[in-house]
Amino acid sequence: MTIGIALALGAVIGVMLGLLGGGGSILAVPALVYVLGLDIGQAIPISLIVIGIASAVGAAPKVIAHQVQWRLAAIFAAAGIPATFLGTAIGRHLPQPVLLTGFALVMVVAGIRMLQDKGDKGTACRVEGAGINWRRCAPRSIPAGFLVGLLTGLFGVGGGFLIVPALVLMLGVEIPIAIGTSLLIIVVNSASGLISHLGGAGIDWSITGAFVGTAIIGSLIAGHYGTKLDTQRLQRWFAYLVFAVAAYVLVDSVFIH
Q: What are the annotated GO cellular component locations (predicted)?
């Protein structure tokens, strides 16, 4: 029964990663904690494995199609890698109810970002033509990359809900390229976060394998057929789901524990 639930949850997360370049990962830790009964110390590394592998599979066709901005990915990763270790170190000193409360607040921010996303493209870092003003944009990218890495280490989230808007609105990157770049950044941050969590709680490999298998399939299918769907409507409904889960986590962490 547990493996069956893990298969279903992995499929949902993979589909969201494939369709939205992130977002689905925000439900991985709550699903592992509240549906499968793991503690957050076990849930975070499993979440990072699932998110990292599913994102790598989702990123592969984007790389082949040249829908990745490599220099931006490198800037975000360089800022994010040390931040994941810092986030992990902070998380080890916080009790589970505090971590889950913080996680719920991050979910609220993610849901708000999803509702605010109208598909607009920023121009703040663009120059005449299609180029990017790197002197202006690199300083904007470094704090964003650091914040995403910190959240990855602290809560085991991919951070796509922050990366994609940052790339689109701050740097004016086209949405398909922003999604591909986001997936690549998530892969690097997830690997770094997993390394920082090694030596902590043991990983349940049967649950992890079930999650990963269906997340890969879901990510591939969604990435292939996603262009035919109304992703903005899907994102809006997914945001409502995120709010509902965040409310449950807050009530459980603040009033029950």
A: plasma membrane
What six digits make up the tokens of 7?
Answer: 């298969």
The number of angstroms, rounded, from the C-alpha of 21 to the middle of its chain's C-alpha atoms is 8
The closest of 103, 96, 91, 110 to 39, measured between CA atoms, is: 96
Higher per-residue confidence, 182 vs 234: 182
pTM of the model: 0.79
Neighbours of 121 (CB within 10 A): 14
What digits encode the pLDDT tens for the residues 117-146?
655 555 555 544 555 666 666 677 888 889
C-beta separation of 114 from 159 below 8 A = no
Residue 159 backbone class (left: φ over 0; alpha: ψ -120 to 50; beta: rest): left
Spatial distance between the Cα atoms of 183 and 77, rounded to a whole number of angstroms: 11
Give the separation between CA 192 and CA 163, rounded to whole angstroms. Answer: 17
Token pair recorded at residue 45: 């590394």
Confirm if 12 and 217 have CB atoms less than 8 A apart.
no
Q: Are 57 and 120 in contact, with CB atoms under 8 Å apart? A: no
Position 39 scores a pLDDT of 84
Tens of pLDDT, residues 65-100: 888 888 888 888 899 999 999 998 898 888 888 888
CA dihedral over 245, 220, 151, 161, signed as positive or negative:
negative
Length of the chain: 257
Q: How far apart are CA 61 and CA 64, in angstroms?
A: 5
